[in-house]
Amino acid sequence: GAVVSQHPSRVICKSGTSVKIECRSLDFQATTMFWYRQFPKQSLMLMATSNEGSKATYEQGVEKDKFLINHASLTLSTLTVTSAHPEDSSFYICSAKGRGETQYFGPGTRLLVL
Amino acid sequence: DAKTTQPTSMDCAEGRAANLPCNHSTISGNEYVYWYRQIHSQGPQYIIHGLKNNETNEMASLIITEDRKSSTLILPHATLRDTAVYYCIVRVSGSARQLTFGSGTQLTVLP
User: So what's the pLDDT on residue B101?
Assistant: First the structure.
């Protein structure tokens, strides 16, 4: 199957700082990328959808000014958590979809805000 | 997208077949059935998908009933590494929309 990578795999930061997470589709062009968040013992919750070259569409309740998404190319999307707080600590997972039917997921980034 | 119903948890003996059921009684004719799994602290892994015919790949088999209202994912020879949460998801063919995850089935493969 297609490969999606994320970097970093885990990050610890101080409250008030910003953290950038990269998501790359390694062997296909991702026309659409999705960002999910998963809290302990819960399922994945969609945060936003982004198409290459256009603004992301955020789900209800997700602050677009806090979670900045950039999808500058067909193989790269970034999520920046601005002014992170402890309640933003979570497992962030990106997903990419090309022209086919299947959506592929990255390995996830664990964020801990102190 | 149609809603799915899965058992919360299942156990399976190592080496035996694991049969994971999924109900999707409101599925439409143009909706695919997808199966993903999530091993602890990892991103979801694609397993298989199908529309109405049974499908098989190197990981699993997908059996879809004739009325398409339910399906079963079969792992033919479960190993300890197959312990994971398994998600059954229905989505319209050709849709650019995201996959929506329910609570899935926690499969535990026992030694």
Answer: 86
CB A2 within 8 A of CB A25: yes
Chain centroid to Cα B44, Å, comes to: 12
In chain A, count of helices (H) and strands (E)?
A: 0, 11
pLDDT tens per residue, range A39-51: 998 999 999 999 8
Separation in Å, CA of B73 to nearest CA in chain A: 17
> Residue A5: phi, psi to the nearest 5?
-115, 155
Q: Measured between alpha carbons, how far is B17 from B28 in angstroms, rounded to an integer?
A: 29
- pLDDT digit string, tens, across residues A3-23: 999 999 999 999 999 999 999
Supply angle C-alpha A82, A43, A78, rounded to 5. 30
Residues of B in contact with A97 (CB under 8 A): 96
Q: For residues B103 and B22, what is the distance between their CA atoms, to the nearest angstrom?
A: 12
Nearest CA in chain B to A91: B41
Q: Are B41 and B107 in contact (CB under 8 A)?
A: no
| CA–CA separation, A48 and A62 (whole Å) | 8
Question: Which of A27, A93, A95, A103 would you mutate first to test chain B, the one with the most B CBs within 10 A?
Answer: A103
Structural contact between residues A92 and A35, judged by C-beta atoms closer than 8 angstroms? yes
H helices then E strands: how many in chain B?
Answer: 0, 9
pLDDT in tens, B68-98: 999 999 999 999 999 999 999 998 876 667 7
